[in-house]
Amino acid sequence: MINVSNKDTKRSIIEQVKAAHISRRAVLLLPVDESGINTAFFVVDVFRRNGHFTQSMSSVHNVVSSAFNLILYICYMSNTVLEKQITRDDTLESLQNEADGTEGGNMKLIRACGTACGTAWKYSQWLIQTGLWRQMGEVTVNAIPVKIDNKVIFKTTIQINLQRCEVWVE
Fold first, then answer.
1. 2-74 is classed in which CATH architecture?
2. What are the start-end ranges of the H helices in 99-158?
3. Are 124 and 110 in contact (CB under 8 A)?
4. Number of C-beta neighbours around residue 54 at 10 A
């Protein structure tokens, strides 16, 4: 477990996490002050963007003494989580052509906003129909406020979580 406080830099925590990962150990980050919360979330996001499975855990008082009731987990294995951002320029056909069954990863997070949401949904259903993936949980629907011509509009966003299905052949 790595305590994260206002005395730590983002770089120093990243280096500590890397050192633990070299030893094939997962890491728990424990923010110990308010500045530590921001640093810990930043570090977790750095590793998330590099394909590490990450998770936040709250209600941790029975596990560890935590002033903020928060522990952040970073798995040592990289490329376990693949992220795919669907844009309005993507088509189901282009996504199918780009898909590669050997791309690795145990989880795939598909994100889209606005008019790309339909394409993201069709792509997720196609992946499921290949038999290599299954949907994990519900689709997360959210909105991002965007200011255009001094007017705030909300862009609908979705995230679809898929998990790889292992096929055993004897």
1. 2-Layer Sandwich (3.30)
2. 117-129
3. yes
4. 19
- Say what the pTM is: 0.75
Q: Pinpoint the residues of the chain covered by CATH 3.30.110.20.
A: 2-74, 81-164
| Tens-binned pLDDT, residue by residue, of the chain (170 aa) | 999 999 999 999 999 999 999 999 999 999 999 999 999 999 999 999 998 999 988 866 666 667 788 899 999 998 888 899 999 999 999 999 987 666 678 899 999 999 999 999 999 999 999 888 999 999 999 999 989 999 999 999 999 999 998 654 44
Cα–Cα–Cα angle for 46, 19, 65, nearest 5°? 75
Q: How many CB atoms lie within 10 A of CB 15?
A: 11
